TrEMBL record:
<protein>
    <recommendedName>
        <fullName>Threonine synthase</fullName>
        <ecNumber>4.2.3.1</ecNumber>
    </recommendedName>
</protein>
<dbReference type="InterPro" id="IPR004450">
    <property type="entry name" value="Thr_synthase-like"/>
</dbReference>
<feature type="modified residue" description="N6-(pyridoxal phosphate)lysine">
    <location>
        <position position="122"/>
    </location>
</feature>
<dbReference type="InterPro" id="IPR050147">
    <property type="entry name" value="Ser/Thr_Dehydratase"/>
</dbReference>
<dbReference type="GO" id="GO:0006565">
    <property type="term" value="P:L-serine catabolic process"/>
</dbReference>
<comment type="similarity">
    <text>Belongs to the threonine synthase family.</text>
</comment>
<dbReference type="GO" id="GO:0003941">
    <property type="term" value="F:L-serine ammonia-lyase activity"/>
</dbReference>
<dbReference type="InterPro" id="IPR036052">
    <property type="entry name" value="TrpB-like_PALP_sf"/>
</dbReference>
<feature type="domain" description="Tryptophan synthase beta chain-like PALP">
    <location>
        <begin position="86"/>
        <end position="388"/>
    </location>
</feature>
<keyword id="KW-0456">Lyase</keyword>
<keyword id="KW-0663">Pyridoxal phosphate</keyword>
<dbReference type="GO" id="GO:0006567">
    <property type="term" value="P:L-threonine catabolic process"/>
</dbReference>
<dbReference type="GO" id="GO:0004794">
    <property type="term" value="F:threonine deaminase activity"/>
</dbReference>
<dbReference type="InterPro" id="IPR001926">
    <property type="entry name" value="TrpB-like_PALP"/>
</dbReference>
<dbReference type="Pfam" id="PF00291">
    <property type="entry name" value="PALP"/>
</dbReference>
<dbReference type="GO" id="GO:0009088">
    <property type="term" value="P:threonine biosynthetic process"/>
</dbReference>
<dbReference type="GO" id="GO:0009097">
    <property type="term" value="P:isoleucine biosynthetic process"/>
</dbReference>
């Protein structure tokens, strides 16, 4: 649990140079730290873009692995052998039926509900954070999680042979808890909400010398989300979309998709083009949406109360940066209530065959709301980010889906049930019509 001396970082294909304060620009060594000593601003990884421009092409990327590591020169790790558990390169699905239902012509779904190994976008950030944790000499890794992050940290730590202790709020869905315990980490289930868990973890990070992926390793961790920008650009045939819609918890993912697009323009991999950034929150925890709607540039923390637990962060670290991006790109940040979130989950499942969790339901419901408000042009190439899998949050839709017909293993029993199912269909249609 000691931190090794600074490793050599500028290998032949690594371009990361320093940690840099997002507020005052002060630069720091590439260690495990996340806050500026002068102004307490967040630290971010800085790269040598000239070097990237000279050494990276579409072809070098396409010759790489079928995972996030095809973009390794843009990620803050020095090793040539990162932890690769097949994370990334998830499908970008062109939507037909959902698009038609909403009245959109060019809608794409980035489907991280099937990301490897734990079925959420968090596998991206954790693959990067744990690779960097190993480089920095950490032997125990940890996180403050709303659920998916604990799944990813525990799974990828198991794969890499790292000791792991994760912290979660005690009211998480059963699937999220089991999806962590199975990897046999130490799990601390904390009586409190995510923001309280996070505060506790900041203290533990200071006293135990562990690598907390989203605290002292946060500058490296958050870079993993850029791959959601890179992949979409590559999968669209090396072009940027016109509009993206993504969920916001801390706001990090949202800001890093933006950084990913910008970097691809900067090094000449795609043409520059304005991309609108719109964000989705759950009404029961919508501090970023509220600040956006009220035209504020500061966040008033809230106490979360929503079924969308994976994005329930009351005091979002990157909220102000997310607001800034939505404003300057002519996007918007808005929220939907729990009933709309459930409808969003069902709508995506019934039109596209994708079962997403509450965060995805939030994003689909916000997409629908934006279309209805005329804030998405039907001709825009719109990408909606689905970040997690519905099998992990089954509680959310319990009671809102149909039930199986229980029958005897006999033909007449089946025929009777089939008749009943047709009657039920008719009844549902009658309900729709009245
Ligand atoms: C964590 C999470 C997010 C958002 O993460 P931030 O980077 O903190 O905004 C979105 N969707 C799912 C499913 C998540 O688990
Ligand atoms: Zn600073």
């Amino acid at each position: 649990m000691t931190q090794a001396t600074q490793p050599k970082t500028h290998s032949t294909t690594a371009a990361f140079e320093a940690l840099k304060c997002k507020e005052c620009g002060a630069e720091y060594e590439l260690k495990a730290s996340h806050v500026c000593e002068f102004c307490f601003g967040p630290l971010e990884v800085k790269y040598d873009y000239e070097f990237l421009r000279r050494t990276v092409t579409r072809e070098t990327i396409q010759a790489g692995p079928n995972s996030i590591w095809r973009y390794r020169p843009f990620l803050p790790v020095a090793t040539n052998t990162p932890i690769d558990v097949g994370t990334g390169m998830t499908p970008l699905v062109q939507s037909n039926r959902l698009a038609r239902r909403l009245g959109l012509k060019k809608l794409y779904i980035k489907n991280d509900a099937v990301n490897m190994p734990t079925l959420s976008f968090k596998d991206r950030v954790v693959s990067v954070a744990l690779t960097r944790a190993q480089e920095l000499g950490f032997t125990t890794v940890s996180c403050a999680s709303t659920g998916n992050l604990a799944n990813s940290t525990a799974a990828i730590a198991a794969h890499a042979g790292l000791d792991c202790c994760v912290f979660i709020p005690s009211d998480l869905e059963a699937g999220k808890v089991m999806g962590t315990l199975i990897y046999n980490p130490t799990v601390m289930s904390v009586h409190g909400n995510y923001d309280q868990v996070n505060r506790l973890c900041s203290e533990v990070a200071n006293t135990h010398g562990w690598g907390f992926v989203n605290i002292n390793l946060r500058p490296y961790y958050s870079e993993g989300s850029k791959t959601l920008g890179y992949e979409v650009a590559e999968q669209l045939g090396w072009q940027l979309p016109d509009h993206i819609v993504a969920p916001l918890a801390s706001g990090s993912l949202f800001t890093k998709i933006y950084k990913g697009f910008q970097e691809f323009v900067e090094v000449g991999l795609v043409d520059a083009k304005p991309v609108r950034f719109s964000g989705a929150q759950a009404e029961g925890c919508s501090p970023i949406a509220k600040a956006f709607e009220e035209g504020r540039d500061f966040i008033s923390p809230v106490k979360p109360n929503t079924i969308a637990k994976s994005i329930a962060i009351g005091n979002p670290a990157d909220g102000v940066y997310a607001i800034d991006i939505a404003r300057k790109t002519n996007g918007t940040i808005t929220s939907v209530n729990d009933a709309e979130i459930i409808e969003g989950i069902k709508l995506l499942a019934e039109t596209e065959g994708i079962f997403t969790e509450t965060a995805g339901g939030t994003t689909i419901a916000v997409l629908k709301k934006l279309v209805e408000a005329g804030k998405i042009d039907p001709e825009e190439v719109t990408v909606v980010y689905i970040t997690g899998n519905g099998l992990k949050t089954q509680e959310a839709v319990q009671g809102y889906v149909g039930e199986p017909f229980t029958i005897e293993p006999k033909l007449d029993s089946f025929e009777r049930a089939l008749e009943r199912s047709k009657t039920l269909d008719r009844l549902e249609w009658q309900q729709v019509l009245v």
